[in-house]
Design goal:
Shape: elongated
Strand order of the largest sheet: 2-1-11-10-7-8
CATH architecture of the largest domain: 4-Layer Sandwich
CATH superfamily of the largest domain: PPM-type phosphatase domain
CATH topology of the largest domain: Phosphatase 2c, domain 1
Structural class: alpha+beta
Helix content: 25-40%
Number of helices: 12
Mean pLDDT: 79
Radius of gyration: 35 Å
């Protein structure tokens, strides 16, 4: 079949996960779509799940239709399975396969559509003898509006100009751009009158009945004479009170996207808002007027959708920047390059699973003869956990001044319980080691450190305890233990023992004990690396859902 010039008006936007988008002009009728070239396909898709004879685009009067040519899983348009379907610009074509490509049907360029309209305008007379009110004048207004919508002017100016042009085209008295918000709410973003007059949004009461019908039907509501409209719309209070005679309500939808299996069942994209116009005079809308309104609706939705995506991207970048700042601060507050003490060698590491973490460790002198070291794990993830971690660090740093650790931890517990709206608690292990090897420690719901002595591994304690901030009446006390030279304590967060492999199996304490057993004389840095290597080999690159923190302390008798 020879090429018909109108077949060049359409194109397909090809969206394949993980690949750049491509645009393919429709140059044949029928335009064949399928796998490979054996069936003479004009659009060749490489997915083996797609049939060789899959689908075709066929030119018809006023546009194109899609035909299923034998695809095994069926052909879908906007989530609806079809055998044949006339296409509108923006329709999304799927092939019933998860994570497969999608095709978005579009006219090749707005200019082609405008030219097509122009060829149909020659016989349309001017309504008042002036070009501005006839078909050519309306087309000119459409061209101006389309040009403005894609200009670099501020968004509010662009949308105001679009409303002004729409009012001029329809001869409406006033127009509103109503934007959809969260949880089904709506707000008037712009209100305009004739001649570009700016109106106060609260001064206009749009017909809620017309808006509701446009949303429920997911289609434009255009009433040229409300006296002839259905009873619900004609008798609506706002219509009667304001003596309205004509109403236009055009729902604006985002372009459907199929980046997940869920979006396959969506028939339209997200509702962005409604373009609303009304008048106290009856109106007469020709087919051309309705086409122009539909074109403006599509263009307006595109601009709103792009603006929404830009705002989301800016918000994402802002949050990323704030998280980066929080991470920098948190990392700066962690001990930088733990140094040994005359009676203590120590090393540690902290790997947050998110930008900021809820784990914390520290070591600092607590007087002339004692050294404090601790590990803590705040419940939850992300920024909230990081904020509480920072607060704990500030409170616990007071122990460097000689404050009684038991009093400090009991005070922190009461403080967090009295501020229950925080909704978080923390497990903790705090220890003081003096030159003689006497270890005083406070346990607060944290996994027991492992004691490496003479090559054997054991738990420091087996009885349980409560986290800080969980129970108001909890009382924390100190216990003591006499360490021998070269005794090594391994403190860890549950991110170590609960590290997962790709099969979902946990690393567990037994594997940690195995990694430590027999390594009494191993230098601490090498011992730390052995543990990390053991966890890494076990997890085999699987993503982890918790922070990983390790602190290793070894008592050595001073010379």
């Amino acid at each position: 079949m020879p090429d018909d010039p109108k077949t060049y008006e359409a194109m397909l936007e090809v969206v394949i996960p993980g690949h750049p988008r491509q645009f393919v002009l429709v140059t044949q009728s029928p335009f064949l779509i399928g796998r490979g070239s054996e069936a003479g396909n004009h659009l060749q898709l490489e997915d083996r799940r797609i049939s060789r004879n899959c689908a075709a685009l066929v030119a018809e009067e006023g546009g194109y239709r899609l035909e299923d040519r034998g695809h095994r899983q069926g052909v879908f348009v906007n989530g609806e399975k079809v055998a044949r379907k006339s296409l509108q610009t923006g329709d999304v074509i799927y092939f019933g396969i998860e994570d497969c490509c999608e095709l978005i049907f579009r006219f090749a360029k707005g200019a082609n559509v405008i030219e097509s309209m122009l060829t149909r305008l020659g016989s349309i007379p001017s309504m008042s003898g002036s070009q501005s009110s006839g078909g050519l004048g309306k087309l000119n207004l459409l061209l101006e509006a389309t040009s403005l919508l894609h200009s670099q002017l501020p968004l509010e100016s662009v949308l105001a100009a679009m409303l002004d042009h729409t009012i001029a085209i329809t001869h409406a008295d006033r127009g509103l751009l109503i934007e959809a918000g969260a949880a089904g709410s709506f707000r008037v973003r712009l209100a305009r009158g004739k001649g570009g007059e700016e109106l106060a949004p609260e001064s206009i009461a749009p017909s809620q009945t017309a808006l509701g019908q446009a949303i429920d039907r997911q289609a434009s509501v255009i009433s040229e004479d409300l006296n002839l409209a259905d009873m619900d719309l004609k008798s609506a209070e706002s219509v009667v009170v304001q003596r309205l005679r004509s109403i236009i309500a055009i729902p604006l939808f985002a372009m459907p996207r199929a980046n997940s299996a869920e979006s396959v069942v969506l028939k339209r994209g997200q509702l962005l808002g409604i373009l609303y116009l009304d008048s106290t005079r009856p109106a007469a809308f020709s087919d051309l007027d309705r086409q122009i309104l539909d074109a403006l609706g599509v263009e307006s939705a595109s601009i709103l959708d792009n603006a929404r995506l830009v705002e989301r991207e800016r918000e994402r970048q802002r949050l990323e920047q704030e998280l980066s700042i929080a991470r920098t601060i948190q990392q700066a507050l962690l001990p930088q390059g733990l140094h040994d003490y005359p009676h203590l060698a120590i090393t540690g590491m902290h790997y947050p699973c998110h930008e900021v973490g809820g784990d914390y460790f520290d070591a600092f002198p607590a007087g002339e003869e004692r050294t404090a070291f601790l590990i803590a794990d705040v419940s939850g993830k992300g920024l909230g956990a990081a904020l509480l971690t920072t607060m704990l660090q500030g409170a616990l740093s007071a122990m460097a001044l000689g404050t009684d650790p038991v009093s400090v931890i009991n005070h922190i517990n009461k403080f967090l319980c009295e501020h229950g709206e925080v909704g978080r608690y923390a497990t903790m292990f705090f220890a003081l080691l003096d030159r003689s090897g006497r270890l005083e420690y406070i346990k607060a719901g944290h996994p027991s450190p492992l004691l490496l002595r003479h090559g054997q591994v054991s738990e420091l304690y087996s009885e349980g305890s409560f986290p800080v901030g969980l129970l108001h009446d909890a009382e924390f006390t100190a216990a003591s233990l006499q360490l021998k030279p070269d005794d090594t304590l391994v403190l860890f967060s549950d991110g170590i023992t609960e590290a997962e492999n790709p099969e979902g199996e946990l690393y567990g304490e037994s594997r940690l004990r195995e990694a430590l057993t027999g390594k009494q004389n191993q230098p601490l840095e090498a011992l730390k690396q052995d543990v990390l290597d053991s966890v890494e080999v076990f997890s085999r690159g699987a993503n982890q859902s918790d922070d990983m923190t390790l602190l290793i302390a070894r008592y050595r008798a001073p010379a």
